[in-house]
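Dear colleague,

As promised, here are the two records you asked about, laid out in our usual form so they can be pasted straight into your sheet.

NAME FIELD: protein one
SEQUENCE, THEN STRUCTURE:
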Amino acid sequence: MFLLVSIVLRKNINFQMFLFLLALGGVYGAERLNRILAANWKSFARQNYFDSHGIFLSTLWSGPLLVIAIIVLVNTLFSLCYLIVRWKKAELRHRARLLLKRRIEKHIAALLRLKSWGVGEGECCLWDILIHSLPTPTDEENSLHLVTLGISFCH
């Protein structure tokens, strides 16, 4: 049942961590549980299954709990890998935006210097310079930003 719950709720990281700690706690308490059950086996069984080495309890109790803990651990590692990839992609996108912003600011400063020198008065040569000197934008947002800048210089 816990195995099914751990698979169904694999997206809920908090529950997965609770289940992981619960499974490891169950494995940790197996030795004490084996001693208690070995002392009281006559009240619930016809034969003593609980030897001093704890083989029976380890097989039927600790084994499944360890399998569940391993499944939760592997799922957590996959989730962490996915999170690291998303974080790195966002970082690279942010760096690309900063680089594009710096290039745009650099080219606009050059265009403003040209305009202050009187180059292209009454013409759209600033638009041509802007289009040819700026890097090609990678998304529509930057494209719209560049077109807005170009139009404001032309008119």
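NAME FIELD: protein two
SEQUENCE, THEN STRUCTURE:
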Amino acid sequence: MTMQHTQLLQESNSIRAILREDLTASTVPSLQSQLKDALKQDVRDITFDFQQARSIDSTGIGLLLAAKNSLAAQQGHLRLINVPNGMFSLFKSMRLIDSLNVEAQGNTPDVQGNDTESELEQAFEQAQAA
């Protein structure tokens, strides 16, 4: 399945969603439709690849949480990979790293440790500006 903003690669009951743009209000509706169709086809695992994405807004976060909840109801799993450092820090500040299974892009020692409040605020501002 191919879309303008996201490429969905399906293998058995798993999907890899390769984000070609940011996960925002302008890109979510078409992706949401495709994911709903996939979940009807017994998909149990979805991996979002953020390698080409640079920002996410509240609509994108809402989509990820809805996908996680839908998959959990089917004993499935959601995973986010190649998440850029600024976005990783945003997920961390929102305490979503574990529940969304977020894996940072490359080596990220600066976002893996205990961040101070000012570091988290800076990361949040960078994620919003991206």
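A couple of things worth noting about protein two: The longest strand covers residues 77-83. The chain has five helices and five strands.

Best,
R.
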